[in-house]
């Protein structure tokens, strides 16, 4: 796990957080949840609120989705999801009230004998005062918070399906 913070042209931190999680959840199940844009998405992912979820387009290996949460008075981003490379999902910001275009989440998922190993890279480039405030929080404790959110998803995926 590592945390790197770069400074933007205004001297604000641009955090890059990397962490690893291992789980009994299969890679296929995790990747399916990551690319499931049904209303169930907000139940699985703790950082997505149903009221901030809007699906623009879903293709065979990509999606255009606006999602966010009520945190910090509401943070949303329109993202391009790309899962054309097996075992990898890249989520790149197109537009946001907090993050610059080009900010991203990158998930590399590999099978293990007992489930999966997931390496996550989160690169946040603040675009607003709100984004800069959240970036400071990410620099201080982002790895722990983001890793915990991913672990929550994995715990939910281990529950029996309804």
Describe this structure in words.
- By secondary structure, this protein is α+β, with helices and mostly antiparallel strands.
- It is about 25% helix and about 40% strand.
- It is built from 3 helices and 8 strands, in the order ββααββββββα.
- The chain has helices at about 25-35, 40-45, 130-160, and strands at about 1-5, 15-25, 55-60, 60-70, 75-80, 90-95, 105-110, 115-125.
- Strands 1-2-8-7-6-5-4-3 form an 8-stranded antiparallel sheet, with helices on one face.
- A hairpin with a 5-residue loop joins strand 1 and strand 2.
- It is globular and about 45 Å long.
- The N and C termini lie far apart (about 35 Å).
Low-pLDDT windows of residues: none
Q: Quote the beta fraction.
A: 35-45%
State the end-to-end CA separation.
34 Å
- Quick one: how many beta strands? 8
Average pLDDT works out at 89
Q: Total helix count?
A: 3
Radius of gyration equals 15 Å
Q: Major beta sheet, specifics?
A: 8 strands, antiparallel
Molecular shape: globular
**Helical residues, percent:** 25-40%
User: Which structural class do the helices and strands define?
Assistant: alpha+beta
Strand order of the largest sheet: 1-2-8-7-6-5-4-3
Run of helices and strands: EEHHEEEEEEH
Key features of this structure:
single chain; 162 residues; alpha+beta; eight-stranded antiparallel beta sheet; 3 helices; 8 strands; 26% helix
Please write out the topology:
Layout: E1 2-7, E2 13-23, H1 27-34, H2 41-44, E3 54-58, E4 62-69, E5 75-82, E6 88-96, E7 104-112, E8 115-123, H3 129-158
Antiparallel strand pairs: 1-2, 2-8, 3-4, 4-5, 5-6, 6-7, 7-8
């Amino acid at each position: 796990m590592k945390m790197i913070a770069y400074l933007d042209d205004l001297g604000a931190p641009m955090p890059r957080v990397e962490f690893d999680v291992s789980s009994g959840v299969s890679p296929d199940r995790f990747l399916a949840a990551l690319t499931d844009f049904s209303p169930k998405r907000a139940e699985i992912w703790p950082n997505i609120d149903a009221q901030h979820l809007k699906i623009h387009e879903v293709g065979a290996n990509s999606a255009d989705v606006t999602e966010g949460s009520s945190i910090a008075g509401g943070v949303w981003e329109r993202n391009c999801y790309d899962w054309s490379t097996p075992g990898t999902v890249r989520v790149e910001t197109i537009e946001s009230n907090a993050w610059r275009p080009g900010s991203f989440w990158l998930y590399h998922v590999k099978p293990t004998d007992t489930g999966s190993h997931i390496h996550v890279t989160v690169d946040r480039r603040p675009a607003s005062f709100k984004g800069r405030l959240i970036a400071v929080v990410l620099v201080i404790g982002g790895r722990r918070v983001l890793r915990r959110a991913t672990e929550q998803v994995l715990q939910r995926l281990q529950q029996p399906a309804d």
